[in-house]
Design goal:
Strand order of the largest sheet: 2-1-10-5-6
Strand content: 15-25%
Number of strands: 19
Order of helices and strands: HHHHHHHHEEHEEHEEHEEEEEEEEEEEEE
Structural class: alpha+beta
Distance between the termini: 78 Å
Length: about 525
């Protein structure tokens, strides 16, 4: 065989591996449509990687990629898979059984990852097994065609050999079949979630028994570049581990309440939950991964059932009243567990099982049909989405998902303030500049915000009207900007009189601290 033919053969072998991998993924997605979306090979492996990723690496990914971290992870998995597929194709040229075994082994790894996911059953392994078998079969078919000698090399009466056009047709047919399988999987997946989509479309929010008062007219300062007082649902931050957003059918949804100190266990469907009094309340949520000045905070008007009332209905007493459980473990439909202090959710604050967000049913990405919202706590210890179970236990007996990954078991929100405008490195004209932003200290409220320039004296900013103690407050300070480079810093004082610390601490284990600063450049005057 000539050197040129060897190079072409290696190229076709590598291509065979990639095409086989694509076929396997398409078959896996098709099979996952019949099981559940989370069992798709890429999703299962991605979920396992998320669980195994060190906390420091995950925080780095959130800082670098924001809410696109899941897309980056998926792309990375596909890139690694393509590289391994090239290797499997080249190996199959020399040792066909070994190459096929590698291709099938990918399916077994995916099956193991799927079985290791929370809430997994044996059926979750089937899509990855199907993907491995399909990839192995396609690799055998293509590599066998590549390895056949050309007609000019064939001995008399030898096997018929496929020419390049024939191989190209075989690859095209395989890719077309793969695309068809992928499309069918998507259609079946959409059909499988059609019930959830229809249930949300039919769902109408009941009128609140306890409506929230109107947002004060002066709460939104309406400064250009300043975050709106109420964050629209479409831009509300989302930080979670779900590579595929669960789509829960409201008609089949159930919530179970049980555990230590539960005298009367409850199992409720959505209609039964909504039969309880509904409360409307404005609450700012904050993610513990939010760095100083970060974007992972949002304010919304929530509608839901008071969690404390539901727990009392089940016979639960807080530890201060002699209850045996001090931790409420919420579990989502995808297996996420979040632990919340029982004392906190029963101390009189508006801790809700929310069904509405800014006047509409919860979006799927934010927990439809029911999620938890607890003012004053970071989301990882309070804001369970796609809720299906509440279990009473103790902090000594059980560590929830994030606690097992080095985060603190208890995490009240720390006082923070942020400069929204001007942005860092902005080029400004000299003269009056509106420096504005938001500050939050949920369940304590914000009493004062101050700004300083270049380490000078602090100047008190004007605050927007307060909408209770559970939301952020907007602020603005008029600055007479002069030519040169300047650094602006902000700090807040909460409702207890405590001043936000300037000590810079990272997000791990219980939230970042420090003053947000931006550096701007002011042009010389005329």
């Amino acid at each position: 065989m000539t050197a040129d033919r060897k190079r072409r053969q290696r190229l076709l072998g590598a291509l065979s591996g990639v095409v086989a991998a694509a076929a396997g993924l398409a078959v896996g997605d098709l099979a996952a449509a019949a099981v559940r979306p989370e069992s798709s090979p890429v999703t299962a492996v991605g979920g396992a990687l998320v669980d195994a990723t060190p906390t420091a690496v995950r925080e780095w990914a959130i800082r670098q990629f924001g809410t696109a971290d899941k897309w980056v992870l998926t792309f990375g998995i596909l890139l690694v898979l393509a590289s391994l597929a090239v290797g499997a194709g080249l190996l199959a040229l020399r040792r066909l059984p070994a190459g096929i075994a590698v291709a099938g082994g990918f399916g077994l790894l995916g099956a193991a990852a799927a079985l290791g996911r929370p809430e997994a059953g044996w059926r979750d392994a089937l899509p990855s097994v199907a993907a491995g078998l399909a990839a192995a079969g396609v690799l055998w078919l293509l590599v066998t065609a590549v390895r056949r000698p050309r007609p000019s090399d064939s001995p008399p009466g030898g096997a018929w050999a496929m020419d390049r056009r024939g191989f190209a047709r075989l690859v095209a047919a395989t890719l077309a079949a793969s695309a068809g399988a992928a499309l069918a999987g998507r259609r079946l997946g959409a059909y499988g979630s059609a019930g959830a989509t229809a249930s949300r479309a039919r769902f109408r929010l009941p009128r609140p028994t306890v409506p929230a008062p109107p947002v004060p007219a002066g709460a939104d300062l309406r400064v250009a570049g300043l975050s709106p007082f109420l964050t629209p649902n479409r831009v509300f931050y989302r930080v979670d581990t779900a590579l595929v957003v669960p789509r829960v059918d409201a008609d089949t949804w159930r919530l179970r309440i049980h555990g230590e100190g539960v005298a009367r266990p409850l199992t409720l469907d959505l209609r039964e939950l909504l039969a309880r009094p509904l409360v409307e309340h404005d609450i700012t949520l904050t993610c513990v991964s939010n760095e100083v000045g970060g974007p992972y905070a949002g304010n919304a008007r929530w509608l839901g059932v008071r969690l404390a009332d539901l727990l009392r209905e089940a016979g639960v007493r807080p530890p201060s009243a002699g209850g045996p459980a001090d931790q409420l473990v919420a579990r989502s439909v995808d297996g996420m567990t979040i632990g919340t202090p029982v004392e906190t959710v029963m101390d009189g604050r508006e801790a809700l099982l929310a069904v509405g967000m800014n006047g509409e049913p919860l979006p799927f990405a934010h927990g439809f049909p029911v999620r938890m919202v607890v003012p004053g706590l970071y989301g990882y210890v309070s804001a369970c989405k796609w809720l299906r179970e509440l279990r009473l236990t103790t902090f000594a007996a059980y560590d929830a998902y994030w606690v097992r990954r080095s985060w603190a078991a208890r995490a009240p929100v720390k006082t923070q303030s942020r400069i929204d405008t001007p942005r860092s490195y902005a080029a400004l004209a000299p003269g009056r500049v509106a420096v504005a932003g938001v500050a939050w200290a949920q369940h304590r409220g914000i009493e004062r915000v101050e700004v300083r320039v270049d380490g000078g004296p602090w100047h008190e900013a004007r605050l927007g009207d307060a909408d209770g103690v559970d939301t952020w407050r907007q602020w603005v300070w008029p600055w007479e900007a002069t030519a040169g480079s300047h650094t602006l810093e902000v700090r807040a004082t909460d409702g207890t009189g405590a001043v936000q610390t300037g000590e810079r601490v990272g997000t791990l284990p219980d939230g970042a601290t420090g003053w947000h600063a931006v550096t701007v450049r002011v042009a010389p005057g005329p």
